[in-house]
Amino acid sequence: MRQQTTKIPVSSIILDETIYPRKGIDHRRVGIFSENIRDGFTFDPIEVELAPDRPNMYRLLDGAHRWNAYKSTGAAEVEAIVKNLEGDDPLLYAAKKAIGPRQLTEEEARDTARRAYTGNSSLSSVDIGKAIGRARRTVDEYIADLRAVKLMDRNIKIFCMHRLGIPQDRMAKRLGMDQKTIHYRLGKMAAPPNSLNSDLSKGFTVAQVAQKHGWTDPMVWSLSLEGKSDRDRFRELGWGLRTWDKWEWNDCDKRFGDEWPGRIPAQLAAHILKYFSKPGDLILDPMAGGGVTPDTCLALDRRCWSFDMIDRLETRPEIEPFTWDTSSGQQLSWPVSSKEKPDLILFDPPYFDKKAADYDEKSISNLPKKEYLEFLETFFVLMKSNVKKKTRLAFINADWRDFQHTPASEEKYKSGILIDDYLDILKRTGWYHTHIIQAPMSSQRFNAGVVSAMQKKNILGVVSRYVIILNQEE
Ligand SMILES: C[S@@+](CC[C@H](N)C(=O)[O-])C[C@H]1O[C@@H](n2cnc3c(N)ncnc32)[C@H](O)[C@@H]1O
Predict the structure, then answer these.
(1) For 234-282, how does the pLDDT look when each residue is reduced to its tens digit (9 = 90+)?
(2) Which of 23, 220, 298, 439 fits a disulfide with 210 by CB distance 3.0 to 4.6 angstroms?
(3) Total domains, the chain
(4) Ligand 1 in contact with 265 (CB < 6 A)?
(5) How far is the centre of ligand 1, averaged over its atoms, from the C-alpha of 53 (Å)?
(6) Is residue 98 part of a domain?
(7) Does ligand 1 lie within 6 Å of residue 37's CB atom?
């Protein structure tokens, strides 16, 4: 059946190299095609699809030489079939079309197979082979190393999630694998830790071993510190243990957690874990962001279930995607149904609307003040009904004052949210504080120009941040 064609402007078409299977354009062939066009010869229509992220533009799927020939003859429009690939891989589709008139060279076939597999590791060698005109076994050879890395990647993910105590059914769901495979792979996983341990015992640093084996630093720390006490772990990690209730650091420890708006220092998470949990305990972080909590739990041998609305499967499989949602009057729900309950919840939500521009639009940082406080109240109630009687809560938050726009003496009680407002809500919902620990943010984040402007306007900034430890007994 002839497909429907349409005339589109030659200038609205682009050659997207990421889905072009050939090494380059054969200019001799373009020259011949141009002559044919001038002689009145009509070619088959070219094939395009809508270009992603480029409104009103199309990218070529088939006909790069014809399109170049039309361009060189000065044609304004070209006959085209606008395809909807409905999820099919565009690079493979383009390759299948390209081999019609002329097979791909060895280099082009190899490169296309590798690019296609890198973009989508669920493609089979048979499918890739059909598209590029090669046998399955040849494709297997082309992508053998990539497949090995992918497999290793998967094993690392499984190992990390297992180490954090995430149940196998949730691992299976998260990684899109069946539970039997996860179980089987875990059984076979004694070998990789051995080779890492042997590198560590040869004197390589944690960072070197992590890089060599493609593991994350925190995972290697979890191996290298195995069997050690909390105090020894602090010592080896270079975290001076604070003995008093003021925890202050100039910098985040870059080894733990990703660059993330509102990231807390791993040292802060580590002190909460050290004082208010024990090795093997289950820690829950409902808004885990850049992953400081799970990373620190690996270093201190705690299990950890963490959630965030931002889904980063490739780099953070252990942070399960979940949005705490009260919009449109919805009931807040708990992300997991499990008999196992956390021993400690480490809750570091956005501090009202601070950094709102950096978070997703559904983040609670976009709620007006009243709704933000109502959300927390609903959340504390929900937490209470999903934890054990003995579960503790470490709630991190800061005084929120409108200091950027108002001189100190003109600030109003009603326009701020201070830490006692949170304490009121917590008490109302059955959470009673035992400690209020000062953990100020570093004032180094303000540059000299900002400081000088603040001083001129008599503005008193906020660096306060508190860790409030609560339990459920009055
Ligand atoms: C202050 S950050 C957490 C930072 C984290 N402790 C770290 O050190 O990287 C708050 C996090 O809450 C998440 N968040 C905000 N509203 C949410 C919601 N309704 N459901 C799930 N996550 C939410 C944001 O995506 C953000 O990552």
Answers:
(1) 999 999 999 999 999 988 999 999 889 999 999 999 999 999 999 999 9
(2) 220
(3) 2
(4) no
(5) 28
(6) yes
(7) no
User: Which phi-psi region, left, alpha or beta, contains residue 56 (left: φ > 0; alpha: ψ -120 to 50)?
Assistant: left
Q: Is the pLDDT of residue 444 over 70?
A: no
For the chain, the average pLDDT equals: 93
User: b/e for 120-148, b at 16 or more Cβ within 10 A?
Assistant: eeebebebbbbbbbbeeebbeebbeeeee
245 shares a domain with 122: no
CA 25 to CA 144: how far, in whole Å?
Answer: 29
Whether the CB of 295 sits within 6 Å of ligand 1 = no
- 139 and 232 within one domain: no
- Cβ contacts of residue 374 below 8 Å, gap of 6+? 326
DSSP state letter for 444: G
pLDDT digits (tens, 9 = 90+) for 410-438: 999 988 999 999 999 999 999 999 999 99
Q: What is the mean pLDDT of residues 461-467?
A: 94
- Among residues 119, 144, 169, the one where a domain terminates is 144
310 domain residue, yes or no: yes
Q: Which atom of ligand 1 is nearest to the CA of 287?
A: 12
Cβ(419) to ligand 1 under 6 A? no
> Would you call 309 exposed, middle or buried from its count of C-beta atoms within 10 A (0-12, 13-18, 19+)?
middle
Ligand 1 centroid, distance to 266 Cα (angstroms): 16
- pLDDT score at 286: 98
pLDDT surpassing 60 at residue 62: yes
Q: How far apart are CA 374 and CA 367, in angstroms?
A: 10
Report the nearest-CA residue for atom 19 of ligand 1. Answer: 324
Q: Measuring CA to CA, which residue among 164, 162, 156 is closest to residue 300?
A: 164
Residue 191 lies in a domain: no
Tokens of 332: 């807040």
Range of the domain at 354: 225-471
- pLDDT for res 211: 82
Q: Do residues 362 and 464 both lie within one domain?
A: yes
